[in-house]
UniProtKB/TrEMBL annotation:
The lineage of its organism: Eukaryota, Fungi, Dikarya, Basidiomycota, Agaricomycotina. It comes from the Eukaryota. It comes from Artomyces pyxidatus. Keywords: Dioxygenase, Oxidoreductase. This is Aromatic compound dioxygenase.
Length: 327
């Protein structure tokens, strides 16, 4: 082969950033490693990035030093995170689950969604939200027949001053009676026990569902392994998810938790808040069941849940107040 047709040699390519103009001592002692890295991080051009990574480096290095982490333990940690990533699929998010059981999801949610007046409080998204929920009409069902005991959900979407909000998109999802989300079935062909409804001109929404049950979060991956190592159970209390979006209002992700549910005081993802604990009313009336659209049986559970949203101005004011407190 002639030189004119030989493939060009590949070479490693730098990111083009010059070495820092810093007098960094050789890291001959553990503490110098931390000091040098903090000096380098301090050069980050974005102030927020600089703050986040200075705090991250400081706390992470403190953790490693104070815990006297061994090489074997750190390599196991890297392997654990690698396996966590490999467990993720388009319909399974093991990293969100890890964030959940470590309380990070709930903490981030609580910091970013502090209560504002009478607005509905938030809760964690969880790892089972999908983008393929189908639109259903007012009063229709999100669950196919045979997925569990009947439940009728209704309420209003309101502003903090009580004004009805029309056209709010309400995505909702839950487990079936077996304690599985639709995404956990290998033969899933379409969304089930999930759907999207819209509030009417009077702010009202309604749909048929099934009674949610307590269930174990997936224990067949790295997160399940972690919970066992910590001696923690993996059972979530029964709950029904909501994600609400309306023009001019802050998006809300929340869930409701029927009172008396097992594990309600020891939720492994720390999602339960007192204001989100609800009562399911027992209805034993065949005529009422038929009127609600249930094809079989006269018994069902009834949930009335009003959703109160914060408008964008209220959300902006609350954020500004939070920032002032941090200064």
């Amino acid at each position: 082969m002639s030189s004119s047709t030989a493939p060009a040699a590949q070479v490693a390519v730098s990111n083009g950033i010059a070495a820092p103009d810093l007098d960094l001592p050789f890291p001959d002692r553990p503490e110098i490693i931390t000091e040098n890295l903090l000096k380098i991080v301090d050069l980050a051009p974005n102030p927020r990035t600089r703050l986040i990574f200075k705090n991250l480096v400081t706390k992470l290095h403190e953790f490693v030093s104070e815990s006297n982490i061994t090489t074997e333990e750190w390599m196991y940690t890297i392997d654990f995170l690698t396996r966590t990533g490999k467990t993720c699929t388009p319909i399974r998010q093991e990293f969100i689950l890890l964030s959940d059981v470590l309380g990070v999801s709930a903490l981030v949610d609580a910091l970013n969604n502090q209560p504002i007046g009478n607005a509905t409080e938030s809760s964690v998204l969880g790892p089972f939200f999908t983008e393929d929920a189908l639109d259903i009409a007012h009063g229709d069902s999100i669950a196919s027949e045979g997925k569990g005991d009947y439940m009728f959900v209704e309420g209003r979407v309101l502003s903090t001053d009580g004004t009805p909000i029309a056209g709010a998109a309400i995505e909702t999802w839950e487990t079936d009676a077996n304690g599985f989300y639709d995404t956990q079935y290998a033969d899933r062909s379409a969304p089930d026990c999930r759907g999207r409804v819209h509030s009417g001109p009077d702010g009202r929404y309604a749909y048929r569902a099934v009674v949610p049950v307590a269930y174990p979060i997936p224990g067949d991956g790295p997160v399940g392994e972690l919970l066992e190592a910590l001696g923690r159970h993996n059972n979530r209390p029964s709950h029904l998810h909501f994600k609400i979006d309306a023009p001019g209002y802050k998006s809300l992700t929340t869930a409701v938790y029927p009172e008396g549910s097992d594990f309600i005081s020891s939720d492994p993802v720390f999602g339960v808040k007192k204001s989100l604990v609800v009562t399911l009313e027992d209805v034993d009336d065949n005529e009422e069941a038929r009127k609600r659209g249930f094809p079989q049986g006269k018994k069902f559970k009834h949930l009335n849940f009003d959703i109160v949203l914060v408008n964008e101005a209220e959300a902006k004011a609350a954020l500004a107040q939070r920032v002032r407190k941090q200064v």
